[in-house]
Amino acid sequence: MTSDADAIRFLNDPGSIRERAGLLFDRLARGDSEHFEYHPEKLPAVGRLVAQVTRDSYPDLKIPYHARENHFLVGGRDRLSSLFGDADLSPEERARREFDLTVPSVLLDAGAGAEWSYPEPGTGERYARSEGLAVASLHGFASGAFSINPNQPQRADARALQNLTETQLAKGFQVSEQNPLVGVAGRVGLLHALGRALEAHPELFPEARVGGLFDVLRDQAEHGELAAERILAAVLAGLSSIWPGREAIGDVNLGDVWRHPGLEHCHPANGLIPFHKLSQWLSYSLVVPLERAGVRVVALERLTGLPEYRNGGLFIDGGVLSLRAPAALQEAHAPGSELIIEWRAATIVLLDQVAQLVRQELGVSAEQLPLPCVLEGGTWAAGRRLAQNLRQGLPPLNLASDGTVF
Questions:
Q1: Neighbours of 241 (CB within 10 A)
Q2: CA 307, CA 276: separation in Å to the nearest integer?
Q3: What does the alpha-carbon distance between residue 302 and residue 290 come to, in Å, rounded to a whole number?
């Protein structure tokens, strides 16, 4: 009999994401899904589109990882050098501060909705969606919104995160009746839960500071190298408690893990499929400051593509997946619905397949173009381009988001 601990280990292993996603995708490809039909003949065209979008954005093929840092640089502005430009700042302390900025920013990034945007102070430039949320969170961080010490504003401390109010976040993100942001309460709840998690895991977050995780991960490196799944393991261990209303085993909150009847006879953790989308994107985002500080992150291929509405939308808008009931396009779908779970599982599998097609099209190897670079180059941008052309940027499915998944 499988123990609870074994089931949790299975669900936290990135290999299990691909395994369970593959099972649901195979079911869909056989025609056994009630929600989707699969059109494999459409996949090569999607691969060519992603390759073209990649060439357009990165003609030299020097593609960064799909990381939060890229959003901080929107508009061609190097906000990070301005923020961390102190000549006396050590590489290690800069990395801690980048962790302090990146973790709350990623947690704040779930879909903003179509009506919200952020006019940036000092530039007058207006940004929406992920870029707007990134720039807004950077300005909040710079002003000390996440720090308990007014004399050290560039920190993210447990107590400050727990003290943050909806009113403060709404003001910082310039939310109003005319500029509504989806899920403000959910986002504040996540930051409160992050603060509690920092206090609950001093082994991962020394001084109850987000940036303490940098030191923990650096110390796990062997001969200067750190396996990417070590980052994900630390993120899952430290932050699993923050996700609201999720599946649990015993008193352990499983995070971005969902139940589907097509997996009821799979062991261990029968019935469950992990995605860990935000946790994996956070892990990709933490690779950047780790490598800047001299830690080489290896085995990135163990992590998966990100099953969210841009990558998933690419396959619906590209014709690879179609809905059996067109009326489903008009309905609002919760993250735990069978339709959304199957869409996200198919996205995991199809991203791996598209990555191979893109590499062939561009004439590069998997080592030269790892999956997080395919995502950035890439699938996310191509999904956005199709959505913009078809629906002014809206995703193909109407998502009932609580501000913590997409």
A1: 16
A2: 9
A3: 18
Sign of CA dihedral 350, 249, 267, 338: negative
DSSP 403: S
Q: How far apart are CA 106 and CA 109, in angstroms?
A: 5
Query: What are the tens digits of pLDDT across the range 260-281?
Result: 999 999 999 999 999 999 899 9
Q: Which two structure tokens, joined as six digits, stand for 240?
A: 């699993």
CB burial readout 62-78, b (16+ within 10 A) else e: ebebbbbbbbbbbeeee
Nearest alpha-carbon partner for 376 in 323, 311, 332: 311
- CA atoms of 376 and 63, how far apart (whole Å): 7
CA atoms within 13 A on the CB side of 105: 31
Closest CA to 290 of 67, 106, 135, 89: 67
CB 105 within 8 A of CB 138: yes
How many CA atoms lie within 13 Å of 150's alpha carbon, on the beta-carbon side? 0
Report yes or no: 17 and 371 within 8 Å, Cβ to Cβ.
no
How many Å apart are CA 399 and CA 406, to the nearest integer? Answer: 9
What is the torsion angle, in degrees rounded to the nearest 10, for the CA atoms of residue 311, residue 8, residue 16 and residue 12? Answer: 50
Q: What is the DSSP letter of 324?
A: S
pTM of the model: 0.93
pLDDT in tens, 23-32: 999 999 999 9
